[in-house]
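Lab notebook: predicted structure, single chain.

Context: the supervisor wants predicted structures on file for every construct in the current expression panel, including those that have not yet been purified. This is the next one on the list. No modifications to the sequence; it matches the entry in the shared construct table.
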Amino acid sequence: MENPLLLFPQLNISASKDKSYYKVMKSTIKEEPHKASKPGAKQKRNRLSLLLQKSEFHESDHLAKHGNFTKAASVSPEEAVKWGESFEKLLSEKAGLDAFTKFLKTEFSEENIEFWIACEDYKKSKTAHELLPKARTIYETFIRKDAPKEVNLDFQTKEVTSQNIEQPIITTFDAAQNTVYRLMEQDSYPRFLRSDRYLNLVKGRNPGRPTLRRRSRSFTVNDFQGVRPDFTVW
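Prediction complete. Output recorded below exactly as produced.
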């Protein structure tokens, strides 16, 4: 091998041999980029490791942004167990109402709980002036024929409610609300108690939190078959 100093006279003669050799290699890499672009076995291992670490970082960051870690502790198993005591107990707690609403959405029947909530809000009206616009909104949304979120009411209950809508009072929707309440209590509520969503809460698991697993892989000889070592990167 020829002396690097003869090939590259611009090198500092007073520099150490290590430093001179580094300059020679750096210059060679710049002149022959096609050699450095060939990935060797060591480069492949490093790239795979970086990709796995990057993927894990983004996954944990994604979960943190969506608040899945904080939600896991929002409902204790003891609190979830109490929801099984009665339907009234479930709806009386905000977390229970929220969990039941999400369950109904999976069954495409969330209009029932939304109607019940609207009626509860209606009964909190403090003046008669507030009743008419609220009554109209509830009727147009949940009760009239082909309403966007029409609830399942028997003919008599729907007729009485429709007649009273012209001069609404605080009890205008009581019959309809009670009908929907019994429907949820007898039909949807038992299914909720048997659902994975509820059982996971009782067991202390968060049904909305995906399991975060650390990816790992053991490399074998087969992974590097046909890969020739590139000594220019060492």
